[in-house]
Amino acid sequence: MSDEKQLKAGERAFNVLLLLLSLGVLYEAYQIAGFDLPNSPGAFPILLGLIMIASMIAILWGQRQHPKLGTQGILDETRQFLHAYLPLAIVVFSAMAIAYLFLLEFLGFIPATAIFLFVSQVYLRHGRLLASLIITAVATGVIYALFKLLFQVYLP
User: Fold this and answer.
1) 35 near 43, Cβ under 8 Å?
2) How far apart are alpha carbons 40 and 25 in whole angstroms?
3) How far apart are CA 44 and CA 37, in angstroms?
4) How confident is the model at residue 1 (pLDDT cuts 50, 70, 90)?
5) DSSP letters spanning the chain
6) What is the C-alpha separation between 45 and 28, in angstroms, rounded?
7) pTM of whole model > 0.70?
8) Segment 6-59, tens digit of pLDDT
9) Residues with Cβ < 8 Å from 52, sequence gap 6 or more?
10) Nearest 5°: phi and psi at 37?
11) pLDDT digit string (tens) for 70-104?
C-alpha cells in the first residue's frame, strides 16, 4: 500500500467549490470600495480573498498526485460522499433552518424562533415533548428579555 494520502469521496470537488467561493469573496470584497488605497474599506477583505484563493490553489496543486478513491464512477463517489458527510440528522436540521428563515417573514422573530426551537428540540431529543417545551419557553424568554427589554432592539 502506498504512503500517499488517498483522497476521500468528493474531496477534490469540494475543494474546487471552495476555490469558487474564494473567487466570489474576492469579487465581493472588490465591490465594497475597490482598491484605491491600502487602507480603503475593501483592502482587508481583498487580502483575505487572495489568501483564500492562494490556499485553495496550493491544496488543489498538492492533491493532483494523490491516488483517487476506489469508486465506480461519479454516482458511487457521490453516494459515498453523501453517506459520509451528510447524515440524515444534518439534512433534516438544515431543512428546519431553511424553513425557519421563511417563517421569520410570515410570523415574526419571536413566534418563528419559538417554533424552530421547539421542533428542533423535539427532533434532536427524539420526541421528548415536555423537556423540549420547557427548553423552548426558557430560551425564547431569555432571547426576548435580552433583545427587547435589555438592549431595546426592535424585533420584527
Assistant:
1) yes
2) 16
3) 11
4) very low
5) --SSPPPPTTHHHHHHHHHHHHHHHHHHHHHHHTTSSTTSTTHHHHHHHHHHHHHHHHHHHHHTTSPPP--SSHHHHHHHHHHHH--HHHHHHHHHHHHHHHHHHHH-HHHHHHHHHHHHHHHHTTS-HHHHHHHHHHHHHHHHIIIIIIS-----
6) 9
7) no
8) 777 778 778 888 999 999 999 988 887 666 666 777 788 888 999 999 999 999
9) 18, 21, 22, 25, 26
10) -130, 155
11) 667 777 777 777 887 788 889 999 999 999 999 99
Q: How many CA atoms lie within 13 A of 147 on its CB side?
A: 12
Distance from C-alpha of 156 to C-alpha of 153, rounded to nearest angstrom:
10
Per the listing, cell 424585533 goes with: 155
Residue with cell 483592502: 43
By residue count, the chain amounts to 156
Q: Give the tens place of pLDDT for each residue, 48-69.
A: 999 999 999 999 998 887 776 6
C-alpha cell of residue 62: 498538492
